[in-house]
Design brief:
mainly alpha; disordered N terminus; 91 residues; two-stranded parallel sheet; 7% strand
Amino acid sequence: MLDRLGYQFRIDSKLAYADRNYSDKWKKKFEDNRQGDKHVLEQLTEEGWRVAVIWEYATRDVNVFDDVVEKLDVWIKAGENQYFELDYRKT
């Protein structure tokens, strides 16, 4: 089931792979991806899974990646929340 998640893109991300004009085709693709991701997240949490989302661009810098791993470790050990996403944005 996890292989159905595929890659996620955000239209506001500078690293999203799309033409920079965001044609109707790409806007639809992004929206379809969001809806598909939402559906899979709901399905996984309903089945009792805990879900962590780590964005690729948060892994490109070793210092940021180390921070992500530490926060993920805390989330795993706490065992409380069903969802973890660290929305890293380089400033």
